[in-house]
Amino acid sequence: MNARGRQFVPPVVRRGLARAVVKRLLLGLLGAQAGVIVVLMGIDSWRKHVRPRRTRFPRTPPTDSPVGDSVVTTYTYGEDLYADMLAAVRGAEQRVLFESFIIKGDAVGREFKTALVEAAERGVEVFVVYDGFANLVVPRPFLRFPAAVHVLRYPVLRLGMLLFNVRKSGRDHRKLLVVDDRVGFVGGYNVGSLYATQWRDTHVRIVGPSVWELENAFVDFWNQHRGADLPELTDRGSSTWEPRIRAQRNVPEQLAYPIRAMYLEAIDRARDRICITQAYFIPDRDILRALLAAARRGVDVRILVPEVSNHVVADWLARGLYSTLLDGGVTIYLYDGMVHAKTATVDGHWSTVGTANIDRLSLVGNYEVNVEVVDDAYAAHLEQVFIHDASNARRLTATEWQRRPVAAKLSERVLAPLRPLF
Fold first, then answer.
1. Predicted confidence band at 158 (pLDDT cuts at 50, 70, 90)?
2. Cβ of 182: how many Cβ atoms within 10 Å?
3. Single pTM value for the model
4. Residues 226, 229: Cα–Cα separation, whole Å
5. Beta-carbon contacts of residue 368 (< 8 Å; ≥ 6 apart)
6. Helix H or strand E encompassing 153
7. 403-412 pLDDT, tens per residue?
8. Residue pair 290/268 in contact by the 8 Å Cβ criterion
């Protein structure tokens, strides 16, 4: 007992009690998060059976945009893109560099594999990269190629991941194709029948000297990760400098994440309008702050996302930010269907198309490639694509959002601590 009649509790005991309370609170939070996720996944599965996702949507035809000595073509429909990618591979004479996060073992995937193998059989050097984890559900025999095709399977686990070495973290989330150093493709499209007709995505083709930007991205990745059994690719350097087209690359091995910096700089420059299309929009604190600051200074900030994507947990993590965005003057469009594009324009002058989502995994985690284009005509075209997409979306109002069920608001709060992991 102390002088006031209270029982004395030693500091060691108090610390132990505090740790026990914190532990129980954390376990309770983890349990609540697990419960919310299970319920959301169950509802999402039921919804897909009862009300399948809409697969018909407005299409913008492939459009050429001259930029300097190169031509940038924008694709918004998978079948159009795949036809031109396959034509490039089938017409290859010297070298094919092909990289995809996902290669489905379906009809489209088989068509790509056949084209790559046939190119190698006629003497073309063929190099293939795919992510091991993303393709775990793809039958392994499908991902085996003849010896003439050089294949780099980015490993499911790297030793450094287990030791929490951030340089060894991240997935190979890139989608690239470069043929004969003359034509290159990059964007959000993986390879598969689903993406050909049922998902709305964006890819670009570059023809001309700026193809080097994509070629160099592939060469550096290949040489950095190839094993001793795979040949080294020659780094040829570039004979031209075209500042209006740049490939920004996230490289975890080098702790280099320029895509995030690119977005922050572009948003900070905005004076008139910002149009962003994203599959999984979970901005970090700095990007969120930059968007809200832009809206406060009178910039028309518009974000287009799928109302229901293929990742229900990512949807709900994004939903937790909608109130802040809406209250800050940002316009949110909810797309009717699965939009997987990763694009943005600022002030009708700056644009980007690529593989990176605006979330932690893409911006400070994965290997990614985004093409940055500074050209008024190209930005004008990408803005028209945004307007076309918005015709298949509905604008979310602050009033509607405030009226969502209390259970939804609580679920968003419970999941919020997971946001830095996505």
1. confident
2. 17
3. 0.91
4. 8
5. 173, 174, 249, 250, 259, 354, 355, 356, 362
6. strand 149-154
7. 999 988 888 8
8. yes
